[in-house]
Amino acid sequence: SFAYLSVKDRSPQILTKAIDTLHRHKSEFFEKHGEKGLEAEKKAISLLSKLRNELQTDKPIVPLVEKFVDTDIWNQYLEYQQSLLNESDGKPRWFLSAWLFVECYMYRRIHEAIIQSPPIDDFDIFKELKDQNFFESQESVIALCTHLQELRKTIEDLDENQLKNEFLKVLQISLWGNKCDLSLSGGEHISQKTNIMNSLEDLKPFILVNDMDRLWSLLSNCKKTREEESVTQVDIVLDNSGFELITDLVLADFLLSSKLATKIHFYGKTIPWFVSDTTIHDFNWIIKQLKHSNNKWVSQCGVDWEDHIKTGRWVYLDHIFWTLPHEFSAMSQVAPDLYAALQKAHLIFFKGDLNYRKLTGDRRWEFTIPFHEALSGFHPAPLCSIRTLKAEVQVGLQPGQGEQLTASEPNWLTTGKYGVFQFDGPL
Question: In the 8-state DSSP scheme, what is residue 116?
Fold first, then answer.
C-alpha cells in the first residue's frame, strides 16, 4: 500500500533531511550559543538518528518523555492504540499500526527531539524548505497578486454571474495550490513554476467531486440576508505554507472584497508539522515577504493583508488538536473548546490531504460512501474539504467512478493530479 511505502521510504528520507539540516546549521548554533549550541545540535541529531533506527527496524512505539502541553494526551492515545491490539501482538509498532497514527507520531517525536535540546529548542527544522518553496514560486505569486489587485478595482461593478465566476476561479486556485506538498515529496523541492491562472480550464476535468456551486449558494445567501451589524465568518483550516498559503490568502481576501464574508479565521499548527504545514511564524513571515517585495501588486497584497490582521478582519489561531493523531470525529470530546469555536463559523474550509484523512478517519472506505457518513458525526458547521488526492482514501464518488480511474491510472489516489471540493451542509 501507499501507507507502507510512505513509512518504509518517505519517512526515513524526511528524518535524514532533518538530521542534515541540523548539521548544516552547526556554525550558526555555535555563533548564537557557543559550546552549548554545539552540544544541543549533537543531542538533537542523536535523538533523530535513534528515531530513524526505531522506525526502520520496526521497534515498538514508545511514550513521549518530554513534558509539553500535549504529552499526556499523546501518551493516553498510545495506551488506546495498545488496547486495540490482541495480547499476542505486544505493543504498537511502526509497521503494524495505523498509518495516520504513526505518521503524526513521527512528527511529534521530531518536535520532541528539538525541545529536548535547548538552547536550540525553538529551531524549525523545516523552515528552509518552506521558505525555498515560496521563493521558487515567485512568478506564480506575482501573477496571483496582480490578478487579485486588478480584480479588486472592478469588484464593485461585477454582476452576480461575473462575481460567481471569479469566486469559482479563486476556489480552484486554492485547490491546485495544494499540490505543493513537501511531505509527499519527502522534502524534495516542489514549487509552482507556472502561472496557475492559465491552467484552470485544463485542470477542470481532474476535479472528481465538484460542490463549488453549493459553496456559492451558501455564501451568496449569507450576503443577501446579512444585516448591517451581523457577521459572516469563514474559517480556513490551513495546510501547507509557501505557495499554497498564498492561494489561501488570495481566497480569503476575495471573500472580504466581494463581501461574501466579513471575517476570516485561519487555523494553523502550533509546532512544525508534516514538513510544510503552516505555523504562525510562516504566516507572519510570508506576509512580511510580500510587503517588502519590489513588485507593486505583491507589495500591495502584503500591506492589505497586514491591515486585515490589524483590524481583526483576519484572525490567525492555533490549537494543539491539529497536531494530535485523533480523527476529527473525536474533537468534541478531546478539544471541546475548539469544536465550540468552529461552530461559530458559517462555513469551514479544510485544506489538504491530512485534514481529509482526519475528516474521514483515514479508513479504506468504499468510494461511493457519502462524505457525510464518512465524517462519523463531525459537523460543527457547514464544511468543505478542498484537497488534491495524495492518500488512498476517497469517498463520495459516483458508482463506478473509482473503479474506472483505477483501471486507467492505478496510482490516481496518491499523485496529487486529482482534486475535490466536497461539501457537507444544508442542501
Answer: T
